[in-house]
Structure formats: C-alpha cells, structure tokens
Structure to design on (310 residues):
C-alpha cells in the first residue's frame, strides 16, 4: 500500500496505476532486406518502421476521387523500384538537408521521424512539416528550410533515388509516377492548409489535439500501428512540439497536463497513450478537414460525419 499525504486520492490512483508495456523499448537495431517481386518491400524489426506487406497500402492515400487509386498504387510501386537497394541510416539529430544548399535527391523515410524546419536569424525555429515512416520527400533545388532526423532511441532508416533527374525522366515518361508525385504535393498542401487554419484560428488545446490525431491517423494509414491502437511512439520534446504549434514550451506543458488530468491523453517518455479518443477528437473537431473528420484512423468510429465534397 502506497500513501503520500501530499497527493490527492486521484493523483495517488494515477501514480499507482500500472503503465502500459512499451513494445519499443527492447527493440534491437533496425535490420532490413528486400523481397524479390515486391518493389516496395522492406522489413524492419523496429516496430516504428514499415513491413513489406504494409507498404504501399491503399489506405495511405487521402483520396476524394477513387478512380485515382490504381494509378497511385502503380506509381508507388514504380517509385519504390527506382529506390530499391539505396537504403541508408542517419543518426538521431543529424541534418539530412541543410537550409540554403542545393540538393538533388528524393527520400523516403522507412523508420524513425524527421522534420522540415526553418531557423530564423535570431534563433527562433519553426517546424514546418513532420515526416513519419512511409512519407516521401520530394526534392527542392534550393530551400530555405532544413530536414533533420528526430528519432530518439534509434537512427532513422531512409531510402533515396539516385538523382532527381532519374525521377524527373520517369515522371515525364510514366503517367503513374507523375500521378503519385502530384498526389504527394497535394497531400502536403492539404495538411499545410489544415495547419495554417489551426495556427490562425485554433486554440492551444485544439492545435495539440489535432497534431496528436494527425500522427495517429498517418501512422495507421501507413501500417506502422494497428487501426485500433491508442498508443504510439512520438520522439518529439515539448520544446519541439512548441516550435510546431506556435506556442511556448510552458504552454505545451500546461495543455498536456490538462489532457492528462482529464484522462484524455498522456504523453510521457516519448510515448503517446490516448485514454479517450472521442474526447480528444472533440477537442480537435473545429480544425479537422473533411477527410480527417470522415476517417476512422483519425477520429475513431463515433465521430465520422456523412461524406461530402471537400
């Protein structure tokens, strides 16, 4: 029996409650091999990565026109063929692309997390995009932002195309590859539009709820976690979350504490544990776009609205 006169009954109950087992803690280093006949096939022993059977997956594509699905799937497989055999790893915290430098390659993140950031002259930093396993990063000739690896416990595993000209030639010659590349740009635009609305109109708790749901939805869609999972790894500190959310780290801590105290979601030791998906979705609902509001990977089965055009 544990007692502490400084704690309330509720605090004592939460402190004594057994924490869920983290399946990622005892993971060995990433090992991969390529399966013949499956251009996108990658198997990772790291639970935070993709398996051959999980990528590509039709659920990965945020579609409003189903007739695009087949070309997208073919384009996905063909791009994977271009990247076959080009895997490499980068240490946590390493910079993949430095701001202001020319870069000629295209990358796919297989395991780990990465982010595109822009550092201002006075030291302020803004996280623009966060890349999760399965995401494709199209090349920019010269960008004012950097891409850095944000995995905590393990290095990130990536795959690259030989050169942007290789992809461009394939893009010009093959409509399936062109469709897949265009979809990638449109999907990033969809997420950025949603995030601009959040930054401009959303409260701190709405933004944070949206971000946690976005991570879960994308990890489910790419097959990294199961569709019913309410626990996932998130290798971002409160300071890094603040750089993405546009608020201070103190404010992030305050909102996370409120979520935890109300048994909505707990973020601890690089792991997100959602206790009440419905209430988390309620917080984020004003900022969710039509695709997210109708997708159970984001909001579960109880918050879906009738499907309508975006």
């Amino acid at each position: 029996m544990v007692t502490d006169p400084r704690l309330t009954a509720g605090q004592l109950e939460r402190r004594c409650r057994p924490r869920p087992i983290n399946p990622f803690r005892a993971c060995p280093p990433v090992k991969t091999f390529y399966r013949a006949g499956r251009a996108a096939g990658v198997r990772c022993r790291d639970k935070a990565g993709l398996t051959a059977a999980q990528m590509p997956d039709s659920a990965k594509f945020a579609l409003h026109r189903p007739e695009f699905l087949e070309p997208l799937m073919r384009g996905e497989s063909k791009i994977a063929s271009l990247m076959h055999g080009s895997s490499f790893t980068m240490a946590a915290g390493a910079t993949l692309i430095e701001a202001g430098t020319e870069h000629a390659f295209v990358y796919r993140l297989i395991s780990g997390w990465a982010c595109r950031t822009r550092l201002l002259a006075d030291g302020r930093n803004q996280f623009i995009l966060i890349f999760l396993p399965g995401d494709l990063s199209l090349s920019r000739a010269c960008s004012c932002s950097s891409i850095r690896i944000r995995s905590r416990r393990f290095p990130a595993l990536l795959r690259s195309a030989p050169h942007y000209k290789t992809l461009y030639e394939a893009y010009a010659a093959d409509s399936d590859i062109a469709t897949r590349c265009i979809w990638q740009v449109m999907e990033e635009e969809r997420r950025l539009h949603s995030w601009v609305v959040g930054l401009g109109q959303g409260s701190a708790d709405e933004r944070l709820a949206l971000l946690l749901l976005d991570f879960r939805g994308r990890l489910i869609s790419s097959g990294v976690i199961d569709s019913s999972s309410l626990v996932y790894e998130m290798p971002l500190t409160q300071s890094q979350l603040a750089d993405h959310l546009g608020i201070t780290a103190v404010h992030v801590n305050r909102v996370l504490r409120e979520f935890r105290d109300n048994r909505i979601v707990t973020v601890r030791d690089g792991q997100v544990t959602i206790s009440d998906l419905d209430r988390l979705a309620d917080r984020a609902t004003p900022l969710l776009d039509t695709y997210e509001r109708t997708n159970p990977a984001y909001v579960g089965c109880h918050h879906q609205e009738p499907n309508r055009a975006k």
About this structure: The chain has two domains: 26-187, 202-310. Residues 19-59, 306-310 have pLDDT under 50 and may be disordered. The two ends are 55 Å apart (CA to CA). The longest strand covers residues 125-131.
